[in-house]
Amino acid sequence: MNRSCGLMMSLCLGFLGCSGGSGSGSTPSVAKGIAGSPPEDGTGEGNAGNSSSLGGSGGALGPANAAGAASTQSSGSIFEFDLPPGSGPEGIALGPDGNLWFTEMAASKIGRITPSGAISEFSLSSTDLKPEAITAGPDGNVWFTESRGNRIGRITPSGQITEFDRLYEEATPRGIALGSDHHIWFTEWNNGQVLRWSNGKADEFNIPSGEYSDPRGITAGPDGNLWFTEFGTGNNIGRVTTAGKIDEFPLPTAGAGAIGIIAGPDGNLWFTESGASQIGRITTAGVVTEFPLASSSDPVGIAAGSDGNLWFSESEAGRIGRITPSGRVTTFALAPGSEPRGVCAGPDSNVWFVESGANRVGRIVP
Q1: In Å, how far are 58, 109, 201, 238, 326 from 119, measured between CA atoms?
Q2: CB within 8 A of 110, min separation 6: which ones?
Q3: Are the C-beta atoms of 263 and 219 separated by less than 8 Å?
Q4: pTM for the whole thing?
Q5: pLDDT per residue as tens digits for the range 109-150
Q6: In a 10 Å sphere around its CB, with 0-12 CB exposed, 13-18 middle and 19+ buried, how is residue 75 labelled?
Q7: Does pLDDT of 25 surpass 60?
Q8: Mind listing the pLDDT tens digit for each residue in 226-258?
Q9: pLDDT of amino acid 44
Q10: CB distance 122 to 109 below 8 Å
């Protein structure tokens, strides 16, 4: 039983693959250095970081912002790279080719940025598909969801795009991840399902709390299972085995609004609670602990950093945050209106993120 969330999507069913068009081109990038800021919420120690001047353009960074220079910067130093206006980046992931790949939700494009800051963009088959989450696949390619296009897609390192035929009406795929079984797994917001993409078709697994569970993020866990968040009335963290068996674990805080989730360095799963302005931790046995942030911070994306900590975005507050496995929080301010969203660990030991409001890709030194 599908429900509408006001998205204008075609009524098309099926699981057949279809070849989509691809486009490419280099976008000049501008690197901007920002000093790491002290915490604003009183929950951890600050780090002043180092200021840096404006970098170069045309995909080449100035000496102060070259990739190798990041290792000489203090923890919390931030570098940003401009995208074209109206890009609206949402998700970001490290690709098998060692570059960072991201979705441009507003522009219906997939973007690629090298660790040194050179940006390329690849257009999808239509301008209103809203690509959202993105992940490295088992085949050397990068996979992504189209929440309005109602399908998943694949892009090769050279930029060749394939968009697979639409899923069920208004399924609204959101999160996506590579499972321990080497299959692509993704969540369907409107149907209350987790799906496995196998041999060109989607296998569906119903979430026990139903279609209003509103599953969002999904990640591979240290136990070989997939773990996912439920933003809606279910208010749970879910676990699905590679055979499709689903268990749910209720969150202590009502209306937590869980979104992002990632496996941590401590063997637990860590997640963001957008509605409650908290970071959560769940053991593989299902024990949940919550860590409060400043009010109205709106945490969204989360990633495990090279420093053994978890890094997250605070979309409404315009900050990047760090939380230790013991729960100590430090935040670093971005410019007003930045709206950081997706976060991931990069190949250069830095943490990378996208800014939906400011149309930028950024990196922060752990």
Answers
A1: 9, 12, 32, 36, 36
A2: 101, 102, 103, 104, 121, 122, 124, 131, 134, 142, 144, 153, 155, 161
A3: yes
A4: 0.84
A5: 999 999 999 999 999 999 999 999 999 999 999 999 999 999
A6: middle
A7: no
A8: 999 999 988 999 999 999 999 999 999 999 999
A9: 34
A10: yes
In what side-by-side order are the strands of the sheet with 340-345?
31-34, 78-82, 360-364, 351-355, 340-345
Distance from C-alpha of 130 to C-alpha of 109, rounded to nearest angstrom: 8
Residue type, 37: S
The 3-class secondary structure across 308-361, one letter per residue, is CCEEEEECCCCEEEEECCCCCEEEEECCCCCCEEEEEECCCCCEEEEECCCCEE
**The two structure tokens encoding residue 152:** 């998943």
Determine the Cα–Cα distance for residues 231 and 253; give it in Å rounded to an integer: 12
Count how many Cα atoms sit within 13 Å of the Cα of residue 312 in the half-sphere of its side chain: 36
Q: How many residues does the chain have?
A: 366
Q: At 27, which amino acid appears?
A: T
* Residue range 168-195: mean pLDDT, rounded: 93
Q: Compute the half-sphere exposure of residue 320: CA atoms within 13 Å on the CB side of its CA.
A: 36
Tokens representing 219 are 């990640």
Order of strands, sheet of 119-123, starting from the edge strand that comes earlier in the sequence:
26-27, 119-123, 109-113, 100-104, 89-94
CA separation for the pair 95, 168 (Å, rounded): 28
* Residue 73 clears pLDDT 70, i.e. is over it: yes
